[in-house]
Amino acid sequence: MNILSEWHVATATDGKEISVKIIPLKRKQNSTDGYTWVEVGKLIELESGMEIAFNPDGRSFYTSFNQLYRLN
Question: Which residues fall within 8 angstroms of residue 36, CB to CB, at 6 or more apart?
Fold first, then answer.
């Protein structure tokens, strides 16, 4: 997960592979100067455009029920 906005390969537990992109998760934070956008984590973007959150380990994610993928 060194470079953002590049396509990476994720492998499922059954051997299937998909291409995913790692994108920043940004939230609006209140400050004295108004609002600023702060990166609070990372998301997975599939080729279809759907965004999925990482699991707490930061290396795996579920695309659907019982479909676990890990980044290579």
Answer: 28, 29
Coil, helix or strand at residue 63: coil
Burial of 8 (0-12, 13-18, 19+ CB in 10 A): middle
Q: What span, in angstroms and rounded, lies between the C-alpha atoms of 60 and 69?
A: 6
In which band, very low, low, confident or very high, does the pLDDT at 50 lie, cut at 50, 70 and 90? very high
SS3 6: coil
Is the Cβ–Cβ distance between 45 and 51 less than 8 Å? yes
Confidence of residue 4 (pLDDT cuts 50, 70, 90): low
| Lookup: tokens for 28 | 């609006």
pTM for this predicted structure: 0.77
Give the residue from 27, 67, 24, 28 showing the smallest Cα distance to 43: 24
